[in-house]
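Subject: Interface between my chains keeps coming out wrong

I've been trying for a while to get a sensible model of this assembly. When I model each chain on its own everything looks fine, but I need the whole thing in one frame so I can look at the contacts. Pasting all components below, labels as-is. Any help appreciated, I'm running out of ideas.
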Amino acid sequence: MFQSLSDKLESAFKLLKGENRLTEINIAQSIKEIRRALVAADVNYKIAKEFTDKVKDKALGSENVLKSVSPGQLLVKIVQDELTSLMGGQTEGINLTGNPTIILIAGLQGSGKTTFSGKLAYFLKNKKKKSPLLVACDVYRPAAVQQLTVLGQQINVPVFSDADSKNPVDIALRAIEFAKKEKLDTVIVDTAGRLAIDEEMMKEIAAIKKAIGPQETLFVVDSMTGQDAVNTAEAFNQTLNFDGVVLTKLDGDTRGGAALSIKYQVGKPIKFASNGEKMEALDQFYPDRMAQRILGMGDIVSFVEKAQEQFDEKEAKRIEARIRKNQFDFNDFMGQIQQIKKMGDLKNVMNMIPGMGKMAKDIDINDGAFKKVEAVIQSMTPKERMNPDLINTSRKNRIALGCGQNIADINAFIKQFDQMRKMMQKISKNPSMGMPNMGPAGRARR
Amino acid sequence: MSMLNRFFGKKEKEDLNKGLEKTRESLLGRLSRLVVGKSSVDDDFLDELEAILMSSDVGLETTNKIIERVQQKVSTSKYINASELNELLRGEMVDLLAENNTTDIDFFALPKEVKPYVILVVGVNGVGKTTSIGKLAFQFKEAGFKVVLGAADTFRAAAVDQLKIWSERVSCHFYGKGMNADPAAVAYETVQYAIENGCDIAIIDTAGRLHTKVNLMNELSKIKRSVTKKLATAPNEVILVLDATTGQNAFEQAKHFTEATDVSGLILTKLDGTAKGGVAIGISDQFKIPIRFIGVGEGMYQLQVFRKRDYVDAIFDK
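Reply #2:
Try treating it as a single job with all components included. I did that and got this:
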């Protein structure tokens, strides 16, 4: 999607050879392409339009000071900057000042409320040293109460429920009493999924909120949501005036344009990003990462930054040469990791390596692998790092001891590294296999 | 049975109309505003039409297709009024839906000679797989079939309980081995159970999984293989459940699930409550996989057989 946007922009600007300024006329087609690409990333159409209008104004007002950057590249850079600022500057935490703190969870069916409730309890317990209570107020869906109970057992957090009651307000109120008595300082109230147009159900959630007076009301939304995200968020906000948004299922390959739409429409911060089925798979939300994700980690964006940072270009060129000669070693790999560490997990790292973007999806790497990888490399001798083929069974055993992982992990890692190396070499010999515009330096960042 | 179908035919259309109310209101309203003050079909007109279709989640490619066809059919200098435009679009949509050479089938009249008819249900998390299965089971049961539900979602907390409760509500058979059991084994044994107990239909629930998780997609292929191992003709149908509120990612989901399990039909859930009924048009056009059922409300019968013509009518008829 956005990869092809890069292409489209490039060809749109080929007509402009010799020109290095953006004008009303030469920008029109590109603006339209950007808008389409945003919509393809599930940004609401109306918002995409307002957004690109703003980008257009900015672009026309800007002087292209960087001679090495084409107008098309400059434009995408502006898009990214605007997107980042729109997503919000900083990460926002949640209000935990209540006694007990009451957190209300609301959202559509299937958005991931119950799983998130479990994760939040786990997060508060382990990271914030709280003693949470989970409250099962979904009295409608079959086995919803059991689901929360099972999650509570998994993470060792008490769950308050009443199978006989069909009154969620009453359940929530009694749960709070229970928490006070048991000296539990945080009460997480999981509720039934509901449609924004279901008046009765919306009245119910409003009643729950009024009765329990939560410090935090969180709206849980599936990051794969399409054009309707805006309407749903708006409706829930009108009823609940929620404090923050939780984006779920970010471990998929959705661009997550819904995040932008919601932020733009209701102006409430996105507080958590949920990205996996394990209880620990919960992150604070990082607006800049989301902006990049919506953009599809645009090649051109990195390319622009390369133009600004000569050093990275050299480094990346060196790496590419090494790949071509099949000399890519653990030091290079470590270097790449360090450069892109802020970006996220190992899959993202692979996304940064020339041509790996598409393939990263097909190689399964679990989310926690990142730290482990560093530990493995750090447990190698300098010689081993320079010469991956040197590593035999006895060396593997030593490395395993050094990094505190078992031999199977080491084997798996080295196998993955080999796979990756082979693929990179294949791609560098035959660029058509990889992504378009895979200039080697394109992946070298800050 | 046929009488029953006819009886529900009317109610079915009412449900469909009600479920698509929002879509209809928003689409028709915007289309009629579109033609106001426009004296010809120019670029602005087409841009605005594009905006309207895209906001209904028709999707990029299908929108382009429709726009191109509209362009071919109307001369740019000509004025077009609201009802002409509606008719034109309605025609295009019906054509698009017809082109992917899938015929509407009355799913609740299954071939009697295939027994058990095995349906494997797959999809990402939270799209409504288990609920859809419950409603399907109910309707199959009403249509006179003997149904067993197989609980191969052994991963998500309490998923087995959820399916079991559904089987009790519907009063149909249930086969499960509890949480954390091997899902492929559960699927295999569900088919075996269906054979031994003379069930007409076996519906197998699977755990929600994101299509990007290679391991989990492999697991799904394995579940399918194990079903085939027990009964060479099974599964007769692999149904992918898609959430209508999902955006462009639905296309990725369909692609990857089809790679893993040869999806043969779709269920589109949660069409009510959103103004995005256009998504069925886009999906039907892009996937070449027939939509079998659509969910237009919470009731048991509101998971209904998808009929192209009725669907398009429900979008355009006031």
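Reply #3:
Confirming on my end. Chain B touches chain A through 47 residues (CB under 8 Å).
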